[in-house]
Automatic annotation (TrEMBL):
Major place of residence: membrane
This protein's name: Bile acid:Na+ symporter, BASS family
Pfam families in the cross-refs: SBF
GO CC annotations, alphabetized: membrane
Lineage, broadest ranks: Bacteria, Pseudomonadati, Bacteroidota, Bacteroidia, Marinilabiliales
Length: 319
């Protein structure tokens, strides 16, 4: 399998500096739209009723990276594919998770609270998780006899922190301030901005696919099952932990989707940041994983949300 996957490292996705700048703007706009729905009360609720929120945070920032690390050890793909999977697992929840939680009849308030908390926490946790698990994986790979991975990937922790703060932290704080000090104006723009941000993000994914359609057609079979299984593990992690702790069914659905819907756009921006990953590095495996995840988690999330939407909620029943 490794010989086939190595081909990906020599493929460069068509992603111009203009396209990268546009993706930065799209992610910032999406995060601003998400933050308009976040109230300070949500953070207060997390403090007063912390069990579900803590479960979601543990699932996303601790269990998912750990399980991903175990998965790449078992799968033993090429280093760039493995690092791409670890970076995806280190990112916060994706921007469509709140919409999917609503569609699935989950706890939307919990979903929004988790999104807000995870987005702010990601300014530190995303670089930390990638630095820790990425370094552990490279050390294991080089010591396993599978061969030395000679590409000098040095994970610039502070540069990643800086990038994530700009892309996530600033837009979210701006959205929170809008919601706090301009409530009437926020009420008018909140719905259209959230709808527009989701549509723009999906459109951007489609544009990325169309610009690289020949690459995806040629190589998608190499990573399709990897992303499918990885995403299934992410969704299962959230659901299993929430179920084990006997959380209400509405909370289980929200935590499942928050864990399984990752911000793959942020992962792509980090991968294309020359200060984090120098352009001379051949990291096609990483970019393919992140790009296809951006498509697949929408498919899987909508499928699960659609199934749950037709399944009645019985709050007293144990699922």
């Amino acid at each position: 399998m490794n010989e086939a996957l190595e081909v990906l490292d020599h493929v460069r996705l068509n992603f111009s500096p203009t396209g990268l700048f546009a993706l930065n703007v799209v992610i910032a706009f999406v995060m601003f739209g998400v933050a308009l729905d976040i109230k300070w009360q949500h953070f207060k609720d997390v403090i007063l009723k912390p069990k579900s929120a803590i479960t979601g945070a543990i699932s996303q920032f601790f269990l998912l990276p750990f399980i991903t690390f175990l998965f790449v050890l078992i799968l033993n793909p090429t280093p760039t594919v493995a690092l791409g999977m670890i970076l995806i697992a280190s990112c916060p929840g994706g921007n469509v998770s709140n919409f999917m939680s609503s569609m699935a009849k989950g706890n939307v308030a919990l979903s929004v609270s988790l999104t807000g908390f995870a987005t702010l926490a990601a300014t530190f946790m995303t670089p930390l998780n990638f630095a820790v698990w990425g370094k552990m994986y490279l050390n294991h790979y080089n010591a396993s006899g599978a061969g030395n991975y000679l590409v000098p990937i040095e994970i610039d922790f502070m540069q990643m922190v800086q990038t994530v703060i700009i892309l996530l932290g600033i837009p979210v704080i701006a959205g929170l301030l809008f919601s706090q000090y301009l409530p009437k104006f926020t009420k008018k723009i909140k719905k259209p901005i959230k709808q527009a941000s989701i549509l723009i993000f999906i459109a951007f994914v489609i544009i990325l696919l169309s610009a690289n359609f020949s690459h995806f057609i040629r190589f998608i079979h190499l990573i399709f099952l990897i992303v499918l299984v990885h995403n299934a593990l992410a969704l299962t992690t959230g659901f299993t932990l929430a179920s084990a702790l006997k959380l209400p069914r509405v909370d289980r659905r929200a935590i499942t989707l928050e864990t399984g819907i990752q911000n793959s756009g942020l992962a792509l921006v980090l991968m294309f940041n020359p200060k984090i990953f120098p352009p001379e590095l051949e990291l096609g495996g990483m970019t393919f994983i992140a790009a296809w995840w951006g498509v697949w988690h929408i498919v899987s999330g909508l499928a699960i949300s659609g199934l749950w939407a037709r399944k009645p909620l019985y709050q007293t029943a144990v699922q």
